[in-house]
Each structure stands twice: as structure tokens, then as C-alpha cells.
User: Fold this.
Amino acid sequence: MRPSPRACSMAEFRHATQRLTLRDWREEDWPQFWEGTNTPDVMRWLGGVCDEPKRLAAQDRLESYRADHGHTFWAVERKSDGAILGFCGLKRSNQAGGPMGMMEVGWRLRQDAWGQGYAREAAQASLDLAFESFGAGEVIALTVERNVPSWGLMIRLGMERREDLDFANDDFDPENSIIIVYSIDRVQWAAQRG
Ligand SMILES: CC(C)(COP(=O)(O)OP(=O)(O)OC[C@H]1O[C@@H](n2cnc3c(N)ncnc32)[C@H](O)[C@@H]1OP(=O)(O)O)[C@@H](O)C(=O)NCCC(=O)NCCS
Assistant:
């Protein structure tokens, strides 16, 4: 087990929704997370299946976001059976070539959890947390044009297309390097939450 001293000193973050818990990562989550999500279909628009160095680097990034900002792309645990479905949550945008340091919502669920509204439930909770608990004025989300399920979710969340923030990065779709951006600001979020 690799030590994560910065994470040890903080109380665990947990946030419950109707069917899910968003929470800090535990060392024992990672094998289950990768087993479920490190597949060609899940990773299709994320640079493909990760080898071990990439997996460890991704884990370190998610732990460091938590340590640096108090939030990360949290583990998504299903309440009914404790299964780790994937991640969803908040980080600060840091993709090469794109807007830096903006609040960003993101998601990745194992395939057998798609099509049940879990991603939307976790993502809506993440937006609520961004505005209610983490002081965001605006939240962005990034994907590629061909990742229709991902930008479909952005639209379902009430986010709007922000072509002015698009940028080029060919890590995700080798045939189209444009990363497309959506956003929602506090006023839009409050109007939508009624
Ligand atoms: C992007 C991703 C998270 C979207 O997941 P999803 O399950 O399609 O999204 P939602 O949670 O909004 O679910 C919507 C679907 O659930 C259905 N659904 C079933 N029960 C539901 C409920 N109780 N509430 C809401 N929707 C429900 C909806 O009808 C919809 O089905 P449809 O797609 O057939 O129209 C998923 O495709 C994924 O993990 N992809 C791989 C990783 C990835 O690319 N991440 C994004 C990188 S930018």
C-alpha cells in the first residue's frame, strides 16, 4: 500500500444522494474501480485502456486534487450493495491547452451502470456541492464531440455549450482533437433548481 500522508489528516468526505454515496477514495476501492472501468468501451474517449503506470498516475492525481482543493472526482458507491460504480465529482480544470483552474465536473461509470440515471444523479449532486459547499461561481465540463453520452448528460444537467472555451488536445479523440466545453453558472443553476 502506498502512503498518502496528505489524505490521512482530513476527515472523510461523504455525500449521500438517493441511490449513491460520493466519497473520498480508500485504498481498497482502486482494484474494483479499475476492474469495472478500465475497459475499451468505458475508456473509448479517454485515451483507451490504461497500463499500470497510467493507473497509478491517475490515482495520484485524484488524491492530490482532494488534498489541494478538498474535492476531487469522488468514488461513486451504490448504497444498495456497496459496489464502486466509478467516479464523479469536481476538480480544477487542468487539461493542456484548455482553461486552467476553473471548477470542472466530470464522470466515469462502469458500463453495467450506464442507462440508469446514476451518472445524472451523481453529477447533479456534484453541481449542487460546487455551488453550495465549494464556492463555485461557474462549473465547466469537457468532452469530445463523439462522446455523445457525456455531452448529452451536460445538456440534461442544464449546462450550455461554450464554444469560446473550446481547445485542441489530441489525447482523447485522435480523429478530432477539439475538446468541447459546456458550462453552468450560479444563476443558471439556481433557476434550474427552482
Ligand atoms: C458519460 C456517462 C457517465 C453517461 O452515463 P449515462 O448512464 O448514459 O447517463 P445518465 O445517468 O444521465 O443516464 C441516462 C440514461 O438513463 C436512463 N434512466 C434510467 N433510469 C433513470 C433514472 N432513474 N433517472 C434518470 N435517467 C434514467 C435514461 O432514460 C437515459 O437512457 P438513454 O441514454 O437510453 O436515453 C457514461 O456513458 C460513461 O461512464 N461513459 C464512459 C466514461 C466517459 O466517457 N466519461 C466522460 C468523459 S468526458
